[in-house]
Amino acid sequence: MSLWFDETFQGRVRLGFHVTKTLFHGQSEYQSVDVVETEAWGTTLLLDGVYMTSVGDEYHYHEMLVHPALTSAPSIKRVLVIGGGDGGTVREVLRYREVEQVILCEIDRLVVETSQQYLTEFNVPWNDPRLKVLCQDGVAYLRDYVGEPFDVILVDGADPVGPAAGLFESPFYSACRARLQPEGVLASQTEAPTLMRDDFVRIVKTLRSVFPNAHPYFGPVPIYVCGTWSWTLASNASAALTPREDRLTQIEAGCRYYNRDIHRAAFALPNDLRKLL
Amino acid sequence: MSLWFDETFQGRVRLGFHVTKTLFHGQSEYQSVDVVETEAWGTTLLLDGVYMTSVGDEYHYHEMLVHPALTSAPSIKRVLVIGGGDGGTVREVLRYREVEQVILCEIDRLVVETSQQYLTEFNVPWNDPRLKVLCQDGVAYLRDYVGEPFDVILVDGADPVGPAAGLFESPFYSACRARLQPEGVLASQTEAPTLMRDDFVRIVKTLRSVFPNAHPYFGPVPIYVCGTWSWTLASNASAALTPREDRLTQIEAGCRYYNRDIHRAAFALPNDLRKLL
Questions:
Q1: Residue A21, Cβ neighbours under 10 Å: how many?
Q2: For residue A30, what is the domain's CATH number?
């Protein structure tokens, strides 16, 4: 018996992995949560039947969400992660010595608990004293937030349907900007620039309507349909951000995908996307 | 009735597209040849049940195989294309005014004829007087070749199984080098660096054992399993090749993916691949 699970995108494209074992199935008030073993990528998390992350490929996504922002933000003492319940993003953030506090605000407690139990190979330092995990809605959290502004906000949500939809809209981005230090930086995943081109363009334009500066960048995420993903770095800065040498030195050797060449290269815009943005 | 065709890679991963119409099925002495309409990418060519190219996504692959070599080779008067029976590669080559002769050496006549009939949206200038199409084995052609050396050889073969297997081996690359001008340049597709990592590493190392200089580069090809593809630029030059301004000016505006920023960016090596090469 050969077991496959295919993720289908808009009835047009599907990506399937050979599943050797099912490890967990649960249903929260927000979504279904599954963990399976795939032959290609090892332990793999799905939300609402969509491949989210896996032990074998996760470094591509998490390093590219975190390091362009964390190497280039003027200050990185206080970092907020919205979504990101699997922990891969906070793991990368906590590698920087300058980071003093990380708040992980994931709407779905089941995602956090399932990841802590099954994605142990992610090696997330869940007990790091700098990390505080909140299981609540990121949109409401930011709207109601009254504490010290953040230096960096990382938006690590699923696709703009279901529980993460609000994380791609102008009111949310405006709330992010309002809760950032004046020189603060936001990075968000912004969908697949090839197959989900309309979503990608809309989200980047929304970010540009809120922040003076928003630059999309690109990299491979093999577990996602179409394989090429985008993230966008947004700030109040007047020019594109550049990585700081001391931070690069600190984290570069421990990265599996990211390095200073990749940082620069990732921001190159192909002609087709240039025309649309 | 919803019709899907899934391409399966090593029993581990499969990529499927929703097929709205089947246009052609044939069998040559080398392989099966199919043309279908997919909802995602329009008219699409498959060889031996593997997605090869489509009207909607082909520019990514063809521009990235051709332009890094053609913008940076010292001379581009005489160009040989091995494989590439769909014509997308020669279309991009023929955009350069300096190109005087292009030989397309495709082993399978059925691929050329099928492409000419069904992939009309590729807009290949099949009647350009500079183009000569040969339907014969590229390995034998190069081995027996006695004419004027080529300025550029582009290797546009399928995966290293089946009829294209010989196009990824040391004897073939040595024959290429022997038939190139001393300052000539070779570019080849070199498989998916994520999912087909072993193949990718082996092929690049083979190229490096034959050419003093061989640099892999990367880009998205949405129709291929895993979505990120690699090509490698090889030459006798002592340093990495850089694109020439006059050639960039000539072709950049007409490209849908490639431009000078993409050229530079595509050669950035991620940490995981750096360690393996």
A1: 11
A2: 2.30.140.10
- Per-residue pLDDT for A240 more than 80? no
Angle between helices B197-210 and B170-178 (to 10 degrees): 40
Check if the beta carbon of residue B115 is closer than 8 Å to that of residue B52. no
Q: Span A48-60, mean pLDDT?
A: 97
Q: Which of B14, B220, B274 sits opposite A16 (nearest CB)?
A: B14
Q: Hey, of B258, B261, B269, which one would you mutate to test binding to chain A, going by the most A CBs within 10 A of its CB?
A: B261
Q: What residues of A act catalytically?
A: 156
Q: A17 at the B interface (CB within 8 A)?
A: yes
Summarize pLDDT for B95-120 with one digit per residue, the tens: 999 999 999 999 999 999 999 999 99
**Pairing mode, strands B32-38 and B13-27:** antiparallel
Range 160-179 of A in CB contact (< 8 A) with B? none
Q: What is the ipTM of this complex?
A: 0.95
Alpha helices in A108-253, H assignment, sequence order = 109-118, 138-144, 170-179, 197-210, 245-251
Say whether B2 and A11 touch across the interface (CB within 8 A). Answer: yes
User: What is d(CA B42, CA B55) in angstroms, rounded to the nearest whole number?
Assistant: 6
Nearest by CB to A11, which of B11, B15, B18?
B18
Q: Do the Cβ atoms of B53 and B39 come closer than 8 Å?
A: no
Domain with A158 in it: 58-276
Alpha carbon distance B137, B131 (integer Å): 18
Same domain, yes or no, for B100 and B215? yes
Please check whether residues A193 and A264 belong to one and the same domain.
yes
B95 touches chain A (CB under 8 A): no
Nearest-CA distance B12 → chain A (Å)? 5
Give dist(CA B93, CA B82) in Å, integer: 13
- Name every chain A residue with its beta carbon within 8 A of the beta carbon of B269: 259, 261-262
Is residue B136 within 8 Å of residue B59, measured between CB atoms? no
Count of structural domains, chain B: 2
- Examine the pLDDT at B239 and tell me if it is beyond 80: no
d(CA B270, CA B277): 11
Residues B47 and B129 in one domain: no
Q: In angstroms, what is the C-alpha Rg of chain B?
A: 18
Query: Using one digit for the tens of pLDDT, what is the confidence trace for A250-267?
Result: 999 999 999 999 999 999
**Amino acid type, A112:** V
Q: In whole angstroms, what is the distance from residue A246 CA to residue B161 CA?
A: 46
Q: Give how far the C-alpha of residue A177 lies from the chain's centroid of Cα atoms, to the nearest Å.
A: 18
> Domain check: are A42 and A80 in the same one?
no
Q: Tell me the C-alpha distance between A38 and B13, whole Å.
A: 9
% residues pLDDT > 70 (chain B): 100
CB contact under 8 A, B16 and A14: yes
